[in-house]
Write a structure and sequence with these properties.
Helix content: 25-40%
Distance between the termini: 87 Å
Strand order of the largest sheet: 8-7-9-10-6-11-12-13-14
Radius of gyration: 26 Å
CATH architecture of the largest domain: 3-Layer(aba) Sandwich
Number of domains: 3
Structural class: alpha/beta
Number of helices: 12
Strand content: 25-35%
CATH superfamily of the largest domain: P-loop containing nucleotide triphosphate hydrolases
Largest sheet: 9 strands, mixed
Number of strands: 23
CATH class of the largest domain: Alpha Beta
Shape: globular
CATH topology of the largest domain: Rossmann fold
């Protein structure tokens, strides 16, 4: 057998090269080549993704509709993100920053799934004693939970063959290795090889698999980019370490929507669901303070009331500073340009700081009107009424465009005590929208929103 040789593999697409390259010739990514030792392996018969060595083509009419079953994880917020529960035979990749609570979440899931299913918890990072200590803190008895502290993929699959679990939890995929590859655990080859083995196991035997993935310094999932394409769902566990709230967001889901989010609170006894995130996001909101404006945004099918804060301060420097947290920086600059051009407001002599309370990120254009009102309020020191919420997309000409699901947004605001809503004129004109207990203020442009704010301050 030939001696092992050194190759360089692109972490994004898996392209191999005999020497290190700054730019991948296959995918065009920069600085993604990693050095690995590759040893020749004897060729063997490989099965396909569903575990069948010999397969043949069939007509589309002969295909049968699979009857996928979903199992609740015990956390309604996580089930919402997954699309209703964990699908039998699916492979889910959960990623997040170190210490965000991934292992805590999986331990709580395994306890709930263990009530009706056999669960195999594979830990490549912690010992059995450490898992026992965490389970005791979380109040997990683990009667139907099998724990395996192993990193060899062949031994893991052999043990799974004996136990015959319904669900396999792997913490984490970067610690698992295969002896068929000479590279170290966590390398591009090892992660891809081990993930393929778990996927084949899941599809051939109908076992649900949850894989934990590390993140790199850029915030993406460590390992080959193809890993995200191979699995059925990719979940990101987000949150600030200084805050107790966590958000699970799906960036890929073959069995549900990718727009849903799940909100949790980290406590001493584990993760606790937050069924009403709007009240959490509005907790501690200051009264009669300029630079604040509420907005109702949609995360999938769930309306959320978020608080946008803006701080505009004069600067003696020729280049003012712009900082955005929770809002896309380019979107903030675009709105500033519209306000300067259409309303004649002078933001170019001031520093601008923007923040969304609670660590929420607003990517929806429907929050443009609230962002603009918060900026105007901070610059002019006029207070946006505490009982007012603003919804609308802002165009480059200063017009306020219609948004989707306005009635659902306004009803959520009315439920939380808001009495006035600045909404796009076209939404109200088209459907003759009325909501009990809510005064709708239709506007066609941001100039009309400025007049509304001036009128409210005079009152």
């Amino acid at each position: 057998m030939k001696a092992p040789k050194t190759v360089y593999i692109c972490a994004e697409c898996g392209h191999k090269s005999a020497k290190w390259l700054g730019k991948c010739p296959s995918c065009g990514a920069w600085n993604t080549f990693e050095e690995e030792t590759e040893a020749p392996v004897a060729t063997t018969l490989r099965t396909n993704a569903i575990g069948i060595a010999d397969n043949h083509a069939v007509t589309f009419a002969e295909l049968e509709m699979p009857d996928y079953m979903r199992d609740t994880t015990g956390l309604a917020e996580l089930d919402r993100v997954l699309g209703g529960g964990l699908v039998t035979g699916s492979v889910v990749l959960l990623s997040g920053e170190p210490g965000i609570g991934k292992s805590t979440l999986l331990m709580q899931i395994s306890d709930s799934l263990g009530e009706s299913r056999r669960v195999l918890y594979v830990s490549g990072e912690e010992s059995g004693g450490q898992l026992k200590m965490r389970a005791r803190r979380l109040g997990v008895d683990g009667k139907s939970l099998f724990v395996l502290t192993e990193t060899n993929i062949d031994r893991i699959l052999e043990e799974a063959k004996k136990i015959k679990p319904d669900t396999i939890i792997v913490d984490s995929i970067q610690t698992i290795y295969s002896e068929r590859s000479a590279s170290t655990a966590g390398s591009v080859t090892q992660v891809k090889e081990c993930a393929l083995s778990f996927i084949a196991k899941a599809k051939s035997e109908g076992i649900s698999v949850l894989l934990v993935g590390h993140v790199n310094k850029e915030g993406g999932i460590a390992g080959p980019k193809v890993l995200e394409h191979m699995v059925d769902a990719v979940l990101y566990f987000e949150g600030e370490r200084q805050q107790s709230y966590r958000i699970i967001r799906a960036i890929k889901n073959r069995y549900g929507s990718t727009n849903e989010i799940g909100v949790f609170e980290m406590t001493d006894t584990g993760l606790v669901e937050v069924p009403n995130p709007s009240e959490m996001l509005l907790a501690g909101r200051p009264k009669n303070t300029s630079g604040n404006c509420a907005v109702c945004t949609l995360e999938g099918t769930r309306p959320l009331i978020a608080e946008i804060q803006a701080l505009v301060t004069p600067t003696p420097f020729p280049a003012p500073r712009r900082t955005a947290n929770g809002i896309e920086y380019n979107r903030m600059c675009l709105i500033l340009a519209v306000l300067e051009k259409r309303l004649g407001l002078k933001f170019f002599t001031s520093d601008v700081y923007m923040n969304v309370i609670g660590g929420l990120r607003l990517d929806e254009p429907a929050s443009d009107a609230a962002i603009a009102l918060a900026l105007i309020s901070s610059l002019t020191d006029r207070v946006v009424p505490d009982d007012l919420v603003a919804v609308g997309e802002l165009g480059l000409s200063g017009e306020v465009r219609a948004v989707s699901n306005l009635e659902q947004r306004v009803k959520e605001a009315a439920r939380l005590g808001f009495t006035k809503a600045i909404v796009p004129y076209r939404n109200v004109e088209k459907r003759k929208l009325t909501v009990d207990g809510m005064e709708l203020i239709p506007i066609k442009s941001i100039y009309e929103a400025l007049k509304v704010m001036k009128a409210e301050n005079k009152e």
